[in-house]
Amino acid sequence: MDTLEYIVDYNQVANKVAMRKETLFKQIEADVEAMIQSMSPSQTLSFRITDRFGRTQNVPMAAEKRYAKVIWCFLRGNDYEKDGETYKIESEVTVPIINQVEKTTIAFYSSPETRNCIATAVSEAVSTSSIVRASVGSSADEARKAIQKEVASRIANHALSDVKISIVNQVTDQVISFMNTSMMQQIVNAVGTCVTAGAGKILVSKIAIILSKSISAAALKTAVMSIVKKIGITTIAKTAIGKAVAVALATIGLSANAVFFIVLIPIIAYILVHEYNTFPEKLSKKVPTQIVSDLRRNFDTMNQQIVRNIMSELSKQIAAQQRNKRLLPPSKANSSKKTIVIAIIILVSLLAIILVYIWLF
């Protein structure tokens, strides 16, 4: 667990961001539609085949056997085979559309609106956190006991066996060190002030301002990008594009029902004359809807992973800040160690003085 996760439930933050998902979906639809409409008819009707070594070939639309067989295999969901080699098929629009979906998703999570949404969600969690509350108006020992109890509870929920007290003490010290950073002390002070005044909404607003200043747009963009590239958004978009292209092709007469690919050649010739220039418009109405439909089913998983990465980045940024003077004590184990070391140093010094005295006299 991140240190911040002992104070903030990341799932609550993800749920808050999820409330803005319709904004993301609408933007993806608009961006993808605009991209497809800007493409040439040739690009929207062309295909790319890839062999087992990753080498690609472009297959432009033409009323000839090769194109007819490629599109026939594509519509049937099969690979294209030639001279004993098997090729994967995808529409020429697939890669640029996937890049646009990723770009729009990254822009959504990196936007000031989402950053403020995250800051508000975190501030709401922090304002009610038992660890933060323990740091307000309590003695150092009382605060440590309260933090230790919360840490033990959180660790127990994630552990598969009994938790050793040494681990709890270690994590408690880690959380205390985290609480002593300048930002967390600002938050603690805000909590103390607003609790006294009974101003809950003002508290959330104050903490949100503190946090939004600390979540840099660049760091947030990097955190989002690393997850977007890893998770299955490419697979989701690629599958959606394939389905949408097949549906759009069916509207102009190209269907998987043809028994042989040869029969598609005259249909292709007709399309080149009568449907060629209008196909980008037809495709732009099918692809965005299909992508958003598929993303909806996978959004919660994607969103939780992205928000978790953002929160981990925030936790690192807070932990990296210069610590203020310790407002909470380290563990008694650490204090005991320091006491022993000091005692040894004093003892060695006394022995040295005695030896010098004996040698001189």
Head-to-tail CA distance between termini: 62 Å
Query: How many DSSP helices?
Result: 16
Q: How many beta-strand elements? A: 4
Q: What is the succession of H and E elements?
A: HHHEEHEEHHHHHHHHHHHH
Mean pLDDT: 78
How much of the sequence is in beta strands? under 5%
* Helix-residue proportion: over 70%
- Major sheet strand order: 2-1-4-3
Structural class: mainly alpha
Shape: elongated
* Largest sheet properties: 4 strands, antiparallel
Summary tags:
single chain, 361 residues, mainly alpha, 4 strands, 5% strand
Describe, in plain words, how this protein is organized in 3D:
This protein is mostly helical. The chain is built from 16 helices and 4 strands. The chain has helices at 10-18, 21-37, 41-44, 65-76, 94-110, 112-127, 130-134, 140-158, 165-179, 182-197, 200-214, 217-230, 233-251, 264-274, 279-319, 332-360; strands spanning 47-50, 56-59, 80-82, 85-91. Strands 2-1-4-3 form a 4-stranded antiparallel beta sheet, sandwiched between helices.
Summarize the structure.
This protein has 361 residues and is mainly alpha-helical.
Q: What are the SSEs and their pairings?
A:
Blueprint: H1 10-18, H2 21-37, H3 41-44, E1 47-50, E2 56-59, H4 65-76, E3 80-82, E4 85-91, H5 94-110, H6 112-127, H7 130-134, H8 140-158, H9 165-179, H10 182-197, H11 200-214, H12 217-230, H13 233-251, H14 264-274, H15 279-319, H16 332-360
Antiparallel strand pairs: 1-2, 1-4, 3-4
Helix pairs in contact: 1-6, 1-15, 2-5, 2-15, 5-12, 5-13, 6-11, 8-9, 10-11, 12-15, 13-15
